[in-house]
């Protein structure tokens, strides 16, 4: 009886082992696509290793496509047209793309696999994005979770960007696909030989954890600039910046640019954090408001347990904006923070008379 059971167990284990070997072999066979051709905008023809995502295939050829979600298909920034060879639209794409976009053959580059020859159309502005070799020149601890990291540009030595845009940071580890994450530029466009990033360490976040280990002298590869979230310079309306957490980063760039260029526009900064230590760069804006009569700084703390040393606004920044900002003032709004904050602000902005076309936001 015991010997029969032992034989059965050995046979079962052998069957499982055989299936595993079969699946590994099948995976290897399916992944061996050889080289495929990608024709871009009827101009360039690229030869790449098959099997990778279209996003990574293009990046390997120095064509940089925006992506803020690390290729998970959730941000929707990597839209390109795939005219031939892309296969069926995936369920992950159908959650992001509209029916009209799908009809136009738009796809998410991170979700399309280069298994066959492809014909694609990439927005021309993407072709102007550059890769930058940098070295860390300064690291500052702002809170227990946020670090301010400044990168000195080595090659090319300068960058041209609009205040509010972002760069992508790349992390390449042996035997793994490259990891890309987007971070807003916090420095002024006038300081064009550096890039400052404000990085919040996320539990389990591969890139943010890695960036928090950087020290002065370390090398890093960035690409950019990216993004349609940037300061509009065609009007003289008031500029309303509303930020939560590290959503402050692009607002710093916008406000620095307006200040240094001496643009005569009224600027509001509504900035919310839970406690005073988390309100990083607070004193910088306090001093700026003293020097610039056109700049108004409205910070708020949401933790009810904050001590008596805080004499400013209390409560969510959405509530403070509703109480403080005057209705009817011609303005355009720039929002950066968690989706729940931005979703709550949109109707409040409309109630103040700010038109939907004058509201720009970046959710993270």
UniProtKB/TrEMBL annotation:
Provide the transmembrane region boundaries.
6-30
Query: Which InterPro entries does UniProt cross-reference here?
Result: 2Fe-2S_ferredoxin-like_sf (IPR036010), 2Fe-2S_ferredoxin-type (IPR001041), Beta-grasp_dom_sf (IPR012675), Cbr1-like_FAD-bd_dom (IPR008333), FAD-bd_FR_type (IPR017927), Flavoprot_Pyr_Nucl_cyt_Rdtase (IPR001709), FNR_nucleotide-bd (IPR039261), OxRdtase_FAD/NAD-bd (IPR001433)
What is the native source organism of this protein? Candidatus Ozemobacter sibiricus
> Which GO terms of the molecular function aspect are on file?
iron-sulfur cluster binding; oxidoreductase activity
UniProt domain 2Fe-2S ferredoxin-type: residue ranges = 34-126
Q: Which domain of life is it from?
A: Bacteria
Q: Does the keyword section mention Iron?
A: yes
Name this polypeptide is given: Na(+)-translocating NADH-quinone reductase subunit F
Start and end residues of each FAD-binding FR-type domain: 129-232
